[in-house]
Amino acid sequence: xxxxxxxxxxxxxxxxxxxxxxxxxxxxxxxxxxxxxxxxxxxxxxxxxxxxxxxxxxxxxxxxxxxxxxxxxxxxxxxxxxxxxxxxxxxxxxxxxxxxxxxxxxxxxxxxxxxxxxxxxxxxxxxxxxxxxxxxxxxxxxxxxxxxxxxxxxxxxxxxxxxxxxxxxxxxxxxxxxxxxxxxxxxxxxxxxxxxxxxxxxxxxxxxxxxxxxxxxxxxxxxxxxxxxxxxxxxxxx
Length: 238
Description:
Rossmann fold; alpha/beta; 238 residues; four-stranded mixed β-sheet
């Protein structure tokens, strides 16, 4: 990659934080600050960020919104990877507007999942045009996953609802060490269609989050973005 590395602050040094830390040099990013949840809880200053152009936040639903607001108030754009807090999205939108600073959030940073969401809506629109097909989402994650259904499962169901014009149920499974598997089932009396996205390694999420961070660091308008904005920009530049 050409140009100077993007300076990134990592907020949360759990499994995702460590994956981001390891992958960053390969993706044109320099990690200049590493802050865990306890450090954030005691308050963060501009000095703690060491000149970061953007922060990536993977902590817990209980602390994510507070962390994001603190970063915005310091003028640091933030990529939020934590899930389970989306009911407070209006709070983040207001904070971004007040601080005149940008936010990007996504329930899933996998590029494949973004394609899967588009495929889901298209398939649902087609299924609506024929009779007899029911739809269901099954999402499976590791046993430590806190939110159920997951943010990705909810996003898939929302895309299906847009296409089918009706609600779609979600079944959540928590077992073992599964990084993330999402399945859409279209079932009719005599046949069934299954669409599956399977994450094989947690690095797929780290890769997408670093892509989002590089994009967000490029002087974005003060509002809330999603991975759809990132992909749209990439397609426009291709």
